[in-house]
From TrEMBL:
This protein's UniProt keywords: Dioxygenase, Oxidoreductase
Taxonomic lineage: Bacteria, Pseudomonadati, Pseudomonadota, Alphaproteobacteria, Hyphomicrobiales
Full protein name: Glyoxalase
Top-level taxon of the source organism: Bacteria
Keyword Oxidoreductase attributed: yes
Pfam family, one: Glyoxalase
The VOC domain, residue ranges: 4-121, 136-251
GO molecular function, one term: dioxygenase activity
Transmembrane segments: none
Oxidoreductase keyword on record: yes
Length: 253
């Protein structure tokens, strides 16, 4: 499991609105997690839990931290990996701590400031869900501060390897990366108009045009018109009604 994305979390300003939005767009079911002392909603695709939803921490907006999706990457020894984040040029923003009966997590950033979370689970991993299954996260994309520096950082921490690289002309190289031989995402040096590096997550839907209609009807802003990518899939990128950036991927228009 080391180096595998295993969880996703949306921190937002309006949980009820976000729950209604994503259950409609992606087709997830939602239920309260029953966590003492905090509101936390679980999104599921069928019997598989995919993501969590929570209100943004106090003070986040004042610090100009916008609503955002956060990805959790599994590690074998979270304390060891968190220590290595700093030596590899990243930063630990929340030191490893326990989630009772679930595991340990830490929130970190890469050398250019893209945020993600480390996670070490208690017990056995959940049942496997195919990467392109409906409602799962089919792709993980890093708009990096610098492609080569970022790839070295993540490869050293998680063992990710380079897969196919695509020359995007003036936009530079798009480097697909793999976990244990399976391509799971891509990275590229961010365009100048993107203010800061970030991770973007692509949720699987059946057909991109219908999903775009649902998203826009729900108040999303379309950032990238539907585009066909190598392999024949279609993608689109958005900000949700509260301002979090997300993307969709589908096998057809």
């Amino acid at each position: 499991m080391h180096g595998k994305f295993v969880w996703y979390e949306l921190m937002t300003t309006d949980m009820k609105a976000a729950e209604a939005f994503y259950t409609d767009i992606v087709g997830w079911s939602a239920r309260d997690a029953g966590m003492a002392g905090m509101d936390y909603t679980l999104f599921s695709a069928g019997d598989h839990q995919i993501a969590g939803l929570m209100t943004m921490p106090d003070g986040a907006l004042e610090m100009k931290v916008p609503p955002a999706w956060l990805g959790y990457i599994a590690v074998e020894d979270i304390d060891e990996v968190a220590a290595r984040v700093g030596t590899e040029g990243g930063k630990v923003h929340r030191a490893p701590e326990d989630i009772p009966n679930i595991g340990r997590f830490a929130i970190v950033t890469d050398p250019h400031g893209a945020a993600f979370s480390l996670f070490q689970a208690n017990g056995e991993p959940p049942p496997h869900l195919e990467q392109m299954a409906p409602g799962n996260v089919g792709w993980h994309e890093l708009m990096a501060g610098d492609l080569e520096t970022a790839f070295s950082f993540y490869s050293n921490l998680f063992g990710w390897t380079k897969d196919q690289a695509m020359d995007m002309g003036d936009m530079g190289v798009y480097q697909i990366f793999a976990h244990q031989g399976q391509p799971i995402g891509g990275m590229m040096t961010k365009p100048k108009e993107v203010p800061s590096p970030f991770w973007l997550y692509y949720f699987n839907v059946d057909a991109i045009d219908a999903a775009i209609d649902r998203a826009q009807s729900g108040g999303a802003k379309l950032l990238l018109e539907p585009m066909e990518v190598p392999g024949g899939a279609w993608i689109a990128q958005f900000t949700d009604p509260q301002g979090a950036v997300f993307a969709l991927v589908a096998p057809k228009r």
